[in-house]
């Protein structure tokens, strides 16, 4: 059966999910109507918004949907109360609020981001629909909350019966396998043997594990902590890969290699993590390379934190959270805030000038689109798909309003007539080539379908409202293309800019080194993932990211000499070297390479190990220099 569906372009799992979600949304529609809610279609919309194929994601997204709706409803009611009949003041207030939510949602990770974005456009939904329809705001806000709660409850009920559990064991197995592979690469490198797996493949696996971690962190505090401990292990492995990628000196002591092999054997046999940690600590004692010793110590701490979590369910701050820092795109968030605010201000001015209720619907559609999809990798592309699906949803709504509903004798019949049109979207939702943006078919159809009696079809009004709402994605598309255009390539360039310009910040002691290094590791993994999606040389970009980590380690050693050296002469020289390096970093990669080589030449007798590190960092930068040519000077 699955093979037959696949031949038709249908995903069996997605088809089952779409069908049960469509039926659940129909159930929410009838339940909301039976409860006497004014907008029962909002309950059906909430089912689509909250439903997830995974149980953990379902639970947490339902919670955050309620929180975001609650905050947005309160803000929307407050804005209308303050603005009164002043449309311009209301539009400006909404523009500021939704813009702030869009900016914050692009900085925050996970479902916190979803709740933040939702609180923005929920305020628009309540304020604009209430103003356009001259509805009592308190009643509308209460109805909005109750419909969302109804939809979320039904989505939870259906989802808990059918949604699958998160397969955490598979992720744990992948992290264990990666740990074994990295340690094997370490022993093979030290013995001058060919690597059984290329280092770039290990980096790719680390990046893919990182992408898979966030979906497993939802649903419970325990899941979030589990992911944090796994991420700390992956970050520790990046330290070892950095040492290997930059051709660290070979540690060929028999005792060191023996302890590493014992750690590999213990991990392969799934022995208690205590045994693995003990062997890593012994290997650390036998290691005469400072950077490798630090990497092994970091890995043993991460595994110790993992063991503590498995025993008690708690985190060791030093072993887990202290070594995990995630990248935040502040530039992209600022651009999203300005883009959202400016578009809404322009549309708000048009609404205030015309005074037409149509302006409220245009502003509503645009606020949802330009906010919710600002976090997508290529929002302009997805907006194109959404635009066409909203046209289909609008046409279905017109068929419902102008053809079917005039034949209905009561509201129950009107609801029954909506069911086939809801189910009509199930197959496209599950089709591999049609699924992108298809959820908006359900959203637009339900948003514009409010059953009530007595009913009188008004073709002009229905068509006008459809065009007003559908204008939202088109305006958002123009905004994403014209106001701080964003796509996957631009996100990659912003990420690389942030990685390079974090180095002068490290020299200025603006952030602690362990914080800088942890964030840089996450950025390297994101860089590998994003360049792979762009069809670029992800292996070379990953190597370039590890080179920046090596350069940061070099900077740390210079700072230690400048601060703790027993020789005042060495302290003064390294203060000067740090100042020169900061200027070179702000100038260009070429200037940085030249300065590192000059340091290695002049200081190799006074400080041999930092000089070797500088030489390796310079060689690494020279190899990957083309990837950093387009950096913006600061």
From TrEMBL:
Q: Where is this region: Disordered?
A: 601-634
Chain ranges passing through the membrane: 12-35, 63-80, 87-105, 111-132, 144-163, 343-366, 386-405, 412-431, 459-484
A single GO cellular-component term from the record reads: plasma membrane
Q: Which organism is it from?
A: Vibrio furnissii
Q: Which InterPro entries match?
A: PHBA_efflux_AaeB/fusaric-R
**UniProt name for this protein:** Fusaric acid resistance protein
Q: One Pfam family, short name please?
A: FUSC
A molecular function (GO) held by this record is: transmembrane transporter activity
Keyword Membrane applies? yes
Keyword GTP-binding assigned to the entry: answer is: no
Which keywords does this Swiss-Prot/TrEMBL entry list?
Answer: Membrane, Transmembrane, Transmembrane helix
């Amino acid at each position: 059966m699955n093979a037959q569906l696949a031949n038709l372009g249908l995903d069996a799992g997605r088809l089952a999910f779409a069908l049960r979600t469509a039926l659940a949304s129909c159930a929410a529609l009838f339940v909301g109507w039976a409860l006497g809610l004014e907008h029962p279609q909002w309950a059906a919309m909430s089912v689509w918004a909250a439903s997830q194929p995974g149980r953990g994601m379902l639970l947490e997204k339902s919670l955050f949907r309620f929180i975001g709706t609650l905050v947005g409803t309160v803000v929307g009611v407050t804005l209308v109360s303050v603005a009164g009949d002043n449309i311009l003041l209301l539009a400006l207030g909404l523009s500021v609020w939704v813009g702030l939510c869009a900016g914050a949602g692009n900085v925050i990770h996970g479902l916190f981001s979803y709740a933040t974005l939702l609180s923005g456009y929920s305020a628009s939904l309540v304020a604009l629909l209430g103003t356009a329809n001259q509805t009592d705001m308190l009643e509308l806000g209460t109805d909005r909350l109750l419909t969302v709660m109804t939809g979320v409850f039904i989505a939870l009920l259906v989802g808990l019966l059918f949604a699958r559990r998160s397969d955490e064991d598979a992720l744990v197995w992948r992290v264990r396998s990666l740990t074994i592979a990295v340690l094997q690469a370490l022993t093979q490198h030290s013995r001058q043997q060919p690597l059984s797996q290329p280092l770039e493949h290990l980096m790719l696996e680390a990046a893919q594990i990182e992408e898979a971690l966030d979906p497993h962190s939802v649903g419970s505090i325990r899941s979030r902590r589990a992911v944090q401990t796994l991420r700390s292990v992956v970050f520790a492995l990046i330290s070892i890969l950095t040492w290997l990628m930059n051709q660290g000196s070979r540690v060929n002591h028999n005792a060191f290699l023996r302890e590493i092999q014992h750690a590999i054997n213990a991990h392969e046999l799934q022995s208690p993590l205590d045994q693995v940690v003990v062997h890593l600590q012994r290997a650390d004692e036998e290691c005469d390379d400072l950077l490798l010793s630090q990497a092994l110590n970091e890995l043993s701490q991460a595994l110790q934190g993992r063991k503590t979590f498995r025993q008690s369910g708690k985190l060791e701050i030093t072993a887990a959270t202290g070594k995990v820092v995630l990248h935040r795109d502040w530039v992209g968030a600022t651009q999203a805030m300005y883009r959202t605010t400016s578009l809404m201000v322009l549309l708000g001015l048009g609404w205030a000038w015309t005074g037409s209720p149509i302006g409220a619907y245009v502003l509503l559609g645009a606020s949802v689109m330009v906010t919710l999809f600002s976090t997508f990798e290529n929002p302009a592309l997805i907006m194109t798909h959404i635009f066409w699906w909203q046209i289909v949803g609008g046409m279905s709504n017109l068929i419902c309003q102008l053809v079917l509903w005039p034949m209905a004798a009561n509201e129950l019949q009107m609801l029954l007539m909506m069911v086939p049109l809801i189910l009509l979207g199930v197959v496209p939702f599950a089709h591999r080539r049609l699924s992108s943006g298809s959820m908006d078919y359900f959203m637009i159809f339900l948003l514009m379908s409010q059953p009530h009696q007595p009913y009188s079809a008004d073709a002009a009004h229905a068509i006008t409202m459809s065009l007003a709402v559908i204008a939202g994605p088109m305006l958002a598309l123009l905004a994403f293309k014209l106001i701080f255009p964003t796509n996957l390539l631009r996100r990659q360039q912003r990420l690389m800019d942030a990685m390079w310009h974090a180095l002068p910040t490290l020299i200025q002691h603006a952030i602690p080194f362990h914080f800088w290094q942890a964030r840089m590791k996450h950025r390297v993994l994101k860089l590998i993932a994003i360049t792979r999606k762009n069809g670029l040389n992800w292996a070379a970009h990953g190597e370039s990211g590890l080179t920046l980590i090596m350069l940061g380690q070099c900077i740390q050693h210079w700072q230690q000499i400048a601060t703790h050296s027993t020789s005042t002469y060495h302290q003064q020289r390294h203060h000067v070297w740090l100042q020169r390096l900061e200027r070179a970093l702000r100038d260009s990669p070429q200037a940085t390479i030249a300065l590192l080589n000059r340091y290695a030449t002049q200081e190799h007798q006074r400080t041999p190990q930092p000089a070797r590190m500088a030489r390796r960092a310079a060689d690494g930068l020279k190899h990957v220099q083309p990837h950093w040519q387009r950096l913006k000077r600061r």
